[in-house]
Amino acid sequence: GDITKIGDYAFKGLTNVTSVNIAKTVTSIGKYAFNGIPGLTEVTLGDSIEEIGEYAFGSCNGITSLTFGKQLKTIGDYAFYQCENLPKVTIPSNVTNIGSGAFMKCTKLTNVGLNDGLKGIGSYAFSETGLTYISIPETVEDIGAYAFKNCTALADVTIYGKAPQIASTAFYGDTAYCLTPDYDSSWDSTI
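RESULT FIELD:
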């Protein structure tokens, strides 16, 4: 039969892998599946992928290109933790929650596209990244603790729609300017 899941720890630590292009039948990538592969530079996840497990691509310091398929729903905790050379990522609209620490310590990550449909940004999700600007879609209901902690280059944050639940430490260590173009009474208890 067709392969539908890449198992936990399947390729962890391999040193001779440079790119990953997942088969169209695979719907799930297990935890630590590609963790710690130093030469991995390009990851293309097809439209069949619905779930990326925890630490699946963590500590893959060489990744410079990451493409998600349209059916992705779940980005697990620390899935791309410490992918230090990853410059940009666009989260597909089917993803409802970004796991805790999913992109933590991706120090060169300066460009993140979040789409309508996203409901939650996990704790530490983008902490210690190189973000300079972030636009939070109106569908976001919750921004977790330290979600954008110590993003020292973060200058502008735009949050659309009604006030989401924002942890008091969500932007800890940041000096960003926050714009709320849809400001209404829902913001009164948040500010």
